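Hi there,

I know you've been waiting on this one. I reran it after we fixed the sequence typo, so this is the corrected version. Both the input and the resulting structure follow.
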Amino acid sequence: MNAPNQPPHPNLPPNWAPQGNPFGPPMPYPYRQAMNQQRTPQDERNIALARKRYTRVAASLLVMIVVWYLLTALLSNIFSTAIHSGTSAEYAMMYLVSDVPLYGVAIPLAIWNMSGIKPVKTRRFGLSAKQYIVFLVMTFAVMYVGNIIGSVFMGLFAPNTINPITQLMGHSPVVDIVFAVILGPIVEEWLFRKQIISRLRLFGEKTAVIFSAFVFALFHANIYQFFYAFGIGIMFGYIYMRTSSLWTTITMHMIINLNGAVIAPALVNAVGGQEELVYSAQNGVVSVAALYGLVMMAVAIVGVVFFVRNIHRTEFYHTPCQLPKGTAGKVAYGNPASIAFMVLCGLLMLWQMVA
């Protein structure tokens, strides 16, 4: 799953490579050739620096969540009449009281707090149309598998809990397009891919991708979305890592959300809702929504095939401050800020299950 004309050293600054060889020496980073050597003083310094940076990123996300929920609760109380008006404006107001505090205050505050960490500058590489489609189809497959896992989990442990996303989306296509299809992907990719990965990739590409995907999944704060958000985060994180093209992941994110927030709900509503769709299928009535569901199922199956065929081509390069083997997990997830962020998001998920 490599990008076209992908150099062997995407993390190297443009002026790093020796004269006459724009892609650097045969080994990614010469001073890290002996990857199984005992820890050196430089390794210890890298671990200490990485711990500080992961702590700062996690603390920024923690503050983001707290500010977001507090402001949302405040605005929900102020505009409670409009939120429960029973009119078409109700859903726009629900988006506004949640997304305005998030996009306008909480996320900019998090970015400002991360600004002390200098991002790594990388070269940018595009995807061909074929590669773009293959990655997109694989992402659909990952999303559907994750959605099944989340639905099964909730069916076993919280069968009476309603997916909050189904309550919000599908009522006003224009509102869904503005907030879920346009604003959401732009802001979320800007934060979870560009800002986080660019600041953490110096200590290991794979760790940065998995961490960004994990906090992206926790950020959604409900089990229904956790598993597929984590899978999508892995896909988008890898694509961004290999291309440094934010618009590539933004457009893919937009297509994913367009399908889930606008197209699928509109087709289901056109046949009278989910129950009517199931009833029609049981009685052999083929609807446009049913055909669309079959098409998306086929896309997911093809995506699984693509994934299996391409997984061995995944490339992660050793970086200048690569953490020694066995230390990355503790550094990324064992610091106090990461633990606090995980606990808070876990409690929010639990509250969503029992509320």
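Quick highlight: The CA atoms of residues 19 and 278 lie 65 Å apart.

Best,
R. S.
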